[in-house]
Amino acid sequence: MAKNTISRRTVLSLLAGTGAAALIGCDAVRGRNQDRAITIPDALLVEVDGGLGVLRGADRMTIPRSLATVDGQAVYATAPDGADTAFWRIDTATGHASTRVTLPGRWVPQAVSANGTKVALTSHADSATSGRPDGRDVSPVLIADITGVQHRLELRGNFVPEAFTADLAGLFVLEWLPAAAPDRYRVRVVDLATRAPGPLSTRLKTPVPPGAEEEMRGDGRQAALAPNRTILYTLYTHQPDHQHTRNLISGRPGDVHAFVHTLHLNERWAYCIDLPHPFGEAPASGHAMAISPDGQTLHVADITSGSVAEISTEELAVRRTATVAKGTGTGHAAADRDRLFVGADTVVRTVEVGRLGAGTTWSVREPVTGLVLSPDGKRLYVGQTGGVSWHDSTTGAELGRTGVPGLIGVRGLAGQH
Hints:
single chain; 417 residues; mainly beta; five-stranded antiparallel beta sheet
């Protein structure tokens, strides 16, 4: 089964399946339009104006203020409840909803654990990929599951949750500096028992020395979680005067324009894989990343220059690079064992992984807003400005299409029955 690459905000974001509307009441909006009779072969997670949603068969649904597990099997939903927040979990395959619990105060979900059991919520609608937050001196964070509040943190500084450690004992966060007027950030881990943030480890599993923590000013473009859910890869671009921890420790210069930040959720170390020129020179939006189903290979594409890089996740190094046709617009990518699919503007291209060379190219009606492969790899779903089409993944022939008003992007597969 092919895995899809998604933004950090979405590692992590989406929704409920058929039957959930009856269970969650007025918070769900079921749509019926002229495309109601068109049946989509696979359930899809999408982002639309006003919320996140699911397309399942002929059903359409939207739920605001939601965050999904990385495998799309469940979604955590929130809704205002007076001065407090209602919080519950929905199984996306069956629509079954857990009992609602009340969280004191107003909260929005920001990060969900890789095993899908814990959620970090904040009082501010910031995320790891939404740009720099407003200045603040204290960052309240709530850790909850379907039974209620597990931890409440009052972090001194400007923090945004990113991911949980594999043992659920820690929370990775972005600490923005300076707190009152942030212009850069670093990745830290908060011990949930002591509630204290601290540095990560190096790849050699030794603590990062004081003064050697990386501070980043660029854009966190996109993230991909390894199939075994132990490593989070994030593509960063435009890093002016950036120095990796290894350069700060050694004293060697090493300015880069783009790299893949590797975060081990179990061992708590981080390592950066530098991308060669011209990655990072063009707009961040033109870059896209996809991981292979076996987790052994990452591919990064720069639409503007036509550059493609193949990264070995075992060696944590770029193995090969190639140049294919250039393009314009926002980049999107999906991959299976043999093919990398890259979409931008109204064009979708395949790259043959074996020779890292160009394959089939086809056009779609409207600018691409996401690529998702079916579980069997036979269909490629293409999000567009006004809807979703699905194509034969070998020939590019359009097999079907349905309109989705207000579609922002196609994010992944929903839970299967």
